[in-house]
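For reproducibility, we list the full input for the adenosine-5'-triphosphate complex.
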Amino acid sequence: MASISTLRPPARAHTVGAPAGPARPLASSDALVLEGVTRSFGALRAVDDVSLVVAAGEKRAILGANGAGKTTLFNAITGDFPPTAGTIRFFGEDVTELSPFERIRKGLRRTYQSSLLFRDLSVRDNLFLAVRGVSNNRYSFLRPSARHASRAATQDLLERVRLAHIADEPVSSLAHGQQRQLEIGMALAGAPRLILFDEPAAGLSPAERRELVLLLTSMPAHMSFVLIEHDLDIALRVVEKVTVMHNGRVLKHGTPSEIENDAQVQAIYMGGKH
Ligand SMILES: Nc1ncnc2c1ncn2[C@@H]1O[C@H](COP(=O)(O)OP(=O)(O)OP(=O)(O)O)[C@@H](O)[C@H]1O
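The corresponding predicted structure, in tokenized form, follows.
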């Protein structure tokens, strides 16, 4: 775990938010509502009865030790591995049965732990393809107006993820941190309503981590994100709320400071049992 040492000793042990059930009544301003979401692989319940609510515009981290079920939860939300029980609502709509692509069309995006970039293409072309891929006109490559709008959107993204100065470089020549910035840019194509970031700081140098924090703290206010991140220095700095998972279940929800000072969370991150 990258930043265990950054967890300070608890001022006092205390109970943070209750794990069971959505924390409050459903509201139309909720971006993502999970109720009893479970994903089994044979006898293993990788995600077990998870309920949580992410408000529109909210930035949330999901923490947990290796194997806690974080990525499986992301896969359930995106539909890559749909839940075996429970429901998922996205801006009030039940999307539990929808295909991954239908969820993308509704404004859900994700990044992956491993890179999905086209390494031989330029930074600009990768972003252009991402823009075209989520566009309503994605099959009309030859229509000048659609092409013009996509080029403008591509330029916006280049600037937003601070890669305009290397727009025409091939991805294969980029530093690792720049590639992760580009992945974030691609997830931002098409004005998403919620992005799931899967360990964006993995493998980054300290300087690249600072750049990542800048990017994550400058995300549009109305857009939500959910972040899986082992680097607690980053995770606790860029979100308003934290959900901690353990053995597939929600252990607790809380603010970054509540979670940082929680004895039970510390025990898990130190590799202890609770
Ligand atoms: N496709 C799969 N088939 C079988 N078991 C799986 C599959 N995907 C995940 N698992 C199991 O589910 C459990 C949770 O895995 P998951 O990858 O969701 O954890 P995680 O919290 O994301 O871990 P990490 O921090 O290491 O990425 C693990 O025991 C894992 O082996």
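Residues 144-160 form the longest helix (17 residues). The pocket of adenosine-5'-triphosphate is lined by residues 41, 44, 46, 64, 66-72 (CB under 6 Å). Both points were considered when choosing residues for closer inspection.
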